[in-house]
Input
Amino acid sequence: MSFRITSCHRPLAAAVALALFSGLPVGAQAQESVEDRLSALEQQLAEVEPHARGEEGFSFNTYARSGLLLNNEGKSAPGGPYLTPAGSVGGAVGRLGNEPDTYLEAILNYKTVADNGTKAHYRLMIADSTTSSNDWTSDDGALNVRQAYVEFSNLAGFTGIFENASIWAGKRFDRDNFDIHWLDSDFVFLAGTGAGLYDVTFSDSVRSNFSLYGRSFLDFPSDPDTTEGTSDTDNLILTANNYFGNVQWMINGMSAADNDERVVGGVTEAAETGVNTMLAYHGDSFFGVSDGNFKVALLHGQGLGAEVKNIGADGNLYEDAVSTRVAVYGTTRLSDSWRLAPMIMAETSKDRYLDGDEYQWLTFNTRLANELGANFEMQYEASWQVMDLDTQGYEGRADVDGDYARFTIAPTFKPQVGGFWNRPEIRMFASYSTWDDELNRYDGGDALGQEDFGGSQWTFGTQMEIWF
Amino acid sequence: MSFRITSCHRPLAAAVALALFSGLPVGAQAQESVEDRLSALEQQLAEVEPHARGEEGFSFNTYARSGLLLNNEGKSAPGGPYLTPAGSVGGAVGRLGNEPDTYLEAILNYKTVADNGTKAHYRLMIADSTTSSNDWTSDDGALNVRQAYVEFSNLAGFTGIFENASIWAGKRFDRDNFDIHWLDSDFVFLAGTGAGLYDVTFSDSVRSNFSLYGRSFLDFPSDPDTTEGTSDTDNLILTANNYFGNVQWMINGMSAADNDERVVGGVTEAAETGVNTMLAYHGDSFFGVSDGNFKVALLHGQGLGAEVKNIGADGNLYEDAVSTRVAVYGTTRLSDSWRLAPMIMAETSKDRYLDGDEYQWLTFNTRLANELGANFEMQYEASWQVMDLDTQGYEGRADVDGDYARFTIAPTFKPQVGGFWNRPEIRMFASYSTWDDELNRYDGGDALGQEDFGGSQWTFGTQMEIWF
Amino acid sequence: MSFRITSCHRPLAAAVALALFSGLPVGAQAQESVEDRLSALEQQLAEVEPHARGEEGFSFNTYARSGLLLNNEGKSAPGGPYLTPAGSVGGAVGRLGNEPDTYLEAILNYKTVADNGTKAHYRLMIADSTTSSNDWTSDDGALNVRQAYVEFSNLAGFTGIFENASIWAGKRFDRDNFDIHWLDSDFVFLAGTGAGLYDVTFSDSVRSNFSLYGRSFLDFPSDPDTTEGTSDTDNLILTANNYFGNVQWMINGMSAADNDERVVGGVTEAAETGVNTMLAYHGDSFFGVSDGNFKVALLHGQGLGAEVKNIGADGNLYEDAVSTRVAVYGTTRLSDSWRLAPMIMAETSKDRYLDGDEYQWLTFNTRLANELGANFEMQYEASWQVMDLDTQGYEGRADVDGDYARFTIAPTFKPQVGGFWNRPEIRMFASYSTWDDELNRYDGGDALGQEDFGGSQWTFGTQMEIWF
Output
């Protein structure tokens, strides 16, 4: 009998052939070798795979948007969700077709697992923001590091209520921040440099997070006579987030030593301490009436805590400042091809920067999407905001009382339609906005009333948005 | 009969051994398991492999150069391909041994493939440029974001002439830019923020690309009386690239509303619109006479289009500005160890910035390489430029008429010799340049005539260059 | 006999089954196919694995620290290892609990192996430094590129004493720099832009490295009369490192043309050239008495070489400047759970910046760690520095003579305890420092004597530190 092994250059195959003709049982020896090689491959691949999946070693995350926002003369139009007078105190309007910038976050992660099972995650975020359309923006850009922290989890030495806990230190965005995407507004946004402890787990449904964040209050005026002296301090924020099932209760206390030496509006009565709190519900349906989700939150703060979203970030707040905000949004499907996402956010604050001032605003916004193909959907956004701002002349701002409305239509391409959070998207858009002339008087660095931006506006543009 | 399985810890091997002695056919059961494991491995590896290859997930690209350029006293010498008076209007000379900077582009990509097959590619480019040799350059560097865009291809919902099309939006270098490497000059360089559609395919040999780019004209003087007012506008560029086999026809139209309010040379007659066009041929031999490649292009532009390379980037152009440029280069082998790459670029423009000005220049350059070992080659570059610039006093520049010559010899190490585009390279170089004294008078921010740089020069240095 | 192949969709399994029943020997044909698939998998995996391991393609490295350093009022405290008067001339004290900043290095590598075996390694380092605790630091940060170089090794064309050599060019930290971590001080730190040759190997125990580095001396005052003129030059540094077993002998010569035109203290007598040298021993035990390591070095420099650590980085040095430094540290275990790392560094220099000045300082530091669990250890650091600085009024600095002491206790979490170099770490710390009042008078940009920092101090904080 003639038998030839072709294209076999390995000892293994020779051994198999040998075994076949030697009368020894086939397989044991050969399978052992195959087995060894399979095991080796499986083990190697088990080591390699977490790297490809981003579970170990380096991984890359991003948020980015970039596009053109033009008026009907083909020149850049002002824009952004905070473009109205209310924007200066947190009152965002819708962002679709309303963003003039290139903003991006490049997030570089590095993850390791120690022999004892403890996981470590280093995260570096570099961010940039510019309204220049040019490719070379070394003079106009703002490249900077927003996060650089380490977080440990699965700690081998942690037991009991700390068994699932993780600890972190460095500069970061707090893990529990969450947002209303269409408004480019977080419910709460807490960030700074510090350390913390997450997921102290008391029971299946009760867990708590505790952190200390520092923020720098830099170069503020501190001499009411000369208005030339400046000073610095740190705002230290103790934060706790407590989860009871779907309910979240956040409480923040903060203190900035000597911030009462800060000169605001000619007087030194800035807040030195503050507290704020948020009660939130994270719903896993659309208000119980259909599939989707909803989130609702009530926020209240005093003193340095009267900036209820950007926790501890505003050092100009008056010692008696009080703010209350409510925010709610939900997403659902109206049909196989229509999606709906309405939201409301409103705030009232008084004695905010100066004794006797009063700020009130309410934003209503709805995002609507109509899926029309594998890669295409029409998106619509309507936004309406009403405001009554009594500034007492703070920073030269005039009192205003009026409303603002915007409607946008945006033909949108995406790799796969299917949800509000599917990205990337490539959009074109046309937007019509109109507002009360009175709002042009505010003059608080907001867009309304700027040159060529005094009344009703058509704007046009194109944009990409991505996150992963 | 005695039989022992050694170093076999898996059930599989035991099952095989069992089968052998039980009289059951060997292989079916065992092979099934081996088959399962092989299939699992093959599938896992098929998921992992595209990540290692950079076809999915994160990947990294780079262009970078860094080195020293010194005069014969050991001090930094001015340099760069645009160092002559003609450089101020695009007339580059050779770059070998003529670059004083560290310039780099770090390109972070992230690619995904949706379930429906649509591909998405996010690209972020961070770039830096500095002439400081120090390691800490926070004051001298220029770190900025030059690209941040998303491109979709293989779109599931695209058919017909759009079946192979891709779409993009964000900030980017246009995909169809191409260059003469030895001159550090693109034939065309179009970049900005916008959106576009690539590869609309009409037939096997005919396809077209269409894009809209915006560029920012920032802070230009706009009041002829006080010369203190500044203004801004956007230059919107519509571009189309049409390919007919090896022939490329590009056409650009652009408009910058109110750019005619710009003050240039004391008058407000800057162009508000422009057009330009390029007819190019991409040859896949060395002008038909030997293996290699060649590219030739004729460019013409008017108004804002009279800057025919950096499309739409120069807002100072006069309303009647006209430019015509021709460029050609090729590469070939002279023998197994000698490579040759000659090129010519020339431009004439008039009424460019001021009524009546006239700029003419021509550059001839040849790069020659002699491969002398696995990792070593000698590189030579000769460059000659003649120019006749009649500026009408624009920006205080004097009229000049003369020529400039440079010759460089560069012993070069590389991982593997073999072609003009093999990188990285590590070079040493010595360069001799000489020019007409008259060119020192131009004073347009160019190097010629600067302190210690008034006549013939020897320069020396070392440099790395890499791209991947 | 009934026989069914289940869940087998590949021709392979069918072939096996066929072979079984055809009477042909089992295995040969089947094993060949399994063999082919195994071989293919092994080959694919061999290509993929180096990417996951960072041996080919992209990889990511980091050094980073970020934290809060607060005084007992909750405000940021000055800090850093160089916070004393002696710090202005290199006299660092301990860093534990003494760092107020976020400092990070993001290192992006790309490695390739050519067909001929030559390896290339591109390294880009982006670094940032800020003392702001805020997340948005575009005004306070310092993002810049510190390294961008290419290094070739395993060169196919190199033989003899160059067989193991590698060559590099670009901007980099020299490969032979080494440090005392607890002091945040290198023994030598050489960095700049240039090129070099590493690992010229003369015998098993003798090898040498040669490099040329340029550094930029930028915008220094160069007109003693008006004090308005500024000038630039380059400091070119030739460096050689020679290793004889555990002994390292480094020698640096440097020259900065026209640096003698620099005005320092009203006169133009700055050094134009310099030399320095280091003799070091890298011990692989704790001074021969126990397991661990130690390093000891004697450094001496003159003229521009009188800055013996930051080689060639200080252009203000006087033409007759002379410095001598000695540094020694070691690490060992005192027991299973205690680790010890003592060090001493001292320097004397005279005629450093002005004729007749004299600087002397000595730092003693000990780091002690007590491992108390899988993830936890207590760290202690004691630092004592004595200094006698006679400045001759250089840069308005007063003469000072006194000492400084600091003690820090730092509860520390890490993924796995086990050594001084195990990172990441998350620490809390409390630190007490005290110093002679006289040191407050120095006024050389150092922290001592600043507002709220005039005497003994308690400081507190938290920090993460990581490298990989």
Notes: Chain B touches chain C through 66 residues (CB under 8 Å).
